[in-house]
Amino acid sequence: MLLAQGRGWKWAGAAMACALLAACASPRHTPAPVEDRTARHGAPVEPGRVATAPAPAVNDNAGKAGYYTVKPGDTLIRIALESGQNWKDIARWNGLENPNVIEVGQVLRVVPPGAVETAAPRTMPPASAASAPVAAASAATAASAPRPSSSAASTTAPVPAEEEVAWAWPTAAGTSVLAGFDEQKNKGLDLGGKAGDPVLAAADGRVVYAGAGLRGYGNLIILKHNNTYLTAYAHNQSLLVKEDQSVRKGQKIAEMGSSDADRVKLHFEIRRQGKPVDPSRYLPAR
Q1: CATH code at 239?
Q2: Average pLDDT along the chain
């Protein structure tokens, strides 16, 4: 009886060994690779970053008037400001589910629907320094005033009377001019002062941007005065207005500071039909 039992154990052991060998020889199941979609569908970031996702397919609107093709280094904020638009409007016109993410190669509508036929194609230089362009009015809705002293202005049409602006200095009387306008190096005026000095709206307008999402400008405010003119106020210590808020000429909109700058100063720009113009030729004499 013990002998039979021993033989049974041997047969059972052999069967178990065969089962183990068969299991080892079976093909091993490997999980399917996981695609990393973080760049496209990740956590929201500040509306101003470019996604690292692959470029989308070619769009038929690329290069057409009223559209802009996203390039490396672009941000939604910058594109909106260069087009003289609110970044929220561009997000809506293009049906962007996540306005915090845009892709290199993506084609965006940068003028209101219905205005594309008369809009000029958008061309934007890289924005890396504080003197780079920060806002441009859409050619679909903009005209420009003749300014013989400005070579950029001499090729544009006259400004309608209702588009003209009565300007005021954005800083208190006695402010020194640290750096004048230079079309290549400084797209506005750098005005000196002390931290906390008032920054004033140069004309009636509406806030189209208030934040720190544009590199080189620190805490920045952009005002749109009409379809022709915009102004920019950079390097502020604090911002006192919000986007979409209406402001009056001379209203305190910020406090002077040194954000993203080497010293306390206000970098002030006037933009006419997207082109930087010398503010000293528009501001009243002091």
Answers
A1: 2.70.70.10
A2: 75
